[in-house]
Amino acid sequence: MLRTFFRTEAGSTSALLIATVLALLWANSPWADTYEAFWHTPMGLSFGTAEFSLDLRHWVNDGLMTLFFFVIGLEISYEVRLGQLRDRRLIAVPAVAAFGGMLVPAGVYLLLNAGGPGAAGWGVPIATDTAFVLGVLAVVGARCPDPLRAFLLTLAIVDDVLAILIIALFYTAELSVPALLTAALLLAAIVTLRWLKIWRAPAYIVLGFGLWVATLESGIHPTLVGIALGVLVFVYAPSDQKLLLAGEAVHEFTNEPSARAAREATLRVRHAVSVNERLQLRLHPWSSYVIVPVFALANAGVRLDGETLRAALTSPVSWGIAAGLLIGKFAGIALGTWLPLRLKWGILPGNLVWGQLFGGAAVSGIGFTVALFIVDLAFPDPAIRAEAKIGILAGSLLAAALGWVIFRMAWDRGGVCAPPEAEPDEELPELLSVPVGPRDHVRGRIDAPITIVEYGDFECPYCGRLHPVLARLLANNPDVRLVFRHFPLRTIHPRAASAAIVAEAAGDRGRFWEMHDVLYDNQRALTDADLERYAARLGVEPWEDVPRHAARIALDEASGRDSGARGTPTLFLNGVRYQGPLDEDAIGRAIAELRPSPQPS
């Protein structure tokens, strides 16, 4: 479920970015007056003398965005019951980080705006835009592992819940008690239907629409309804009985195809999966590719003429929002991550390291969707609203740039990838435990007197940087051969093991080194689809005989551990562990020392 979410959110970033650019171009074009005029066009429903009408912007902000938060509610419900949030140890750290990532930005904003006309905008810099964040992480690529994406998704879910609560508690102008009671009764009716296990979509749609109207009239922002209804949608893991019935129905259709058997198989398969997951599959693309871009088109248009920019440059609102997103988010999330780890309240997924977490904390300062949403609620003055939007754009751009720089610095630092179980003070063996044999992958002369054995990981950035260094050394030293052994760091690099299996499959066709080079040349694209594409290019069946290849890789890993390898790359020169710098000159000097000294004539 997480991979589907990542793909959809990251892919929708382009649509969101295009919509934002179009809104800015429209608001700054010769037809700028039509921007506000269009979004203030009234549209409504009438029945006899009864009428319900909103302008287009409110239909987007109060209506479509309710569906957006409904999808978030579905995700929360799924993750709490079956997904990432089920493990309380994994929730604690991102939850506290999300709280810090809201508290500190609000404090930074209020330092500049407390007591002023912009004080109500403290909620603007608190929320993270998940779509933009995951889009930036997609650009970052292999520098950001999947466990960090899972951590940031958990953080974003908690962030969204807290943001909705803040909207409901602090950005509600006045309450209508009759409408609030009506909303409570309608919500109770929906809960009753759920308790009675009555799953009739029309009933839920009618009651849900009535609940949305009643909540809107009550003064509470109706997006809270979206979250509540999403959380209430039933979610369950497929039971053995339902899977068995589905399998039998499909088997019956396969043996005797008919319309009746097809209908029965469809129903059985559908009922094996919870309503929550089916709704997510249907609604998530609409939410990411339509609703959020339309929201951006309706709200991101701000005049960027000289007068507006001058006002923003001297506005504490603009500076407070930009500083809150750039500095407040980074400091709040970093502190909120360190504190529960220090107090041992929880653990991190996938053994993340601080360089990755700092990069994630920085890009979490990209605030857009919910930030624009709160701007509309916090500032009735159009001038202050424009200054706030400029602050959002500036702070988000700076946060994205800061995150990119941190990820690049963390990636480009020299060193070795090592899992957290590696003990820095451990006394490690110095000699290669398993001599080079016929099963090894050898590049260079078989009888070369000098052998470099590399324990490597196809996803490790340091192995990727060492790859061309070793290639040049082999080209310049014909008396050197290279042996590659697999040592995938599974907890840090989740795609490394699959890449190793595909390399072994290529080895069955005598093309190991070709695949080895392809994998290192495309190190940031190692998904299963990427690996299958590389395999097809070389005429290799990637997943043929996986158990045998996995066993072969396990032997390499065992020999590496017995030889003292605790990270990648680990090199052995003629059977002795090399401990010098991983640059061409240093390794070249070590190779030269292995050659016999010339005898005097």
From TrEMBL:
The answer to whether UniProt assigns keyword Cell membrane to this entry is yes
Instruction: From the record, give the transmembrane residue ranges.
Output: 58-78, 90-112, 118-139, 151-171, 177-196, 203-236, 316-341, 353-378, 390-411
Q: Among its keywords, does the record have Metal-binding?
A: no
Catalysis performed (reactions): Na(+)(in) + 2 H(+)(out) = Na(+)(out) + 2 H(+)(in)
- Compartments, as annotated in UniProt: Cell inner membrane; Cell membrane
* Matching PROSITE patterns: THIOREDOXIN_2 (PS51352)
Taking every annotated instance into account, which residue ranges of this chain make up the domain Thioredoxin? 417-596
Membrane-protein topology = Multi-pass membrane protein
Keywords of the record, alphabetical order, are: Antiport, Cell membrane, Ion transport, Membrane, Sodium, Sodium transport, Transmembrane, Transmembrane helix, Transport
Record's family? In the N-terminal section; belongs to the NhaA Na(+)/H(+) (TC 2.A.33) antiporter family. Belongs to the NhaA Na(+)/H(+) (TC 2.A.33) antiporter family.
Summarize the protein's role: Na(+)/H(+) antiporter that extrudes sodium in exchange for external protons.
* The name this protein goes by in its record: Na(+)/H(+) antiporter NhaA
Protein's organism: Nonomuraea bangladeshensis
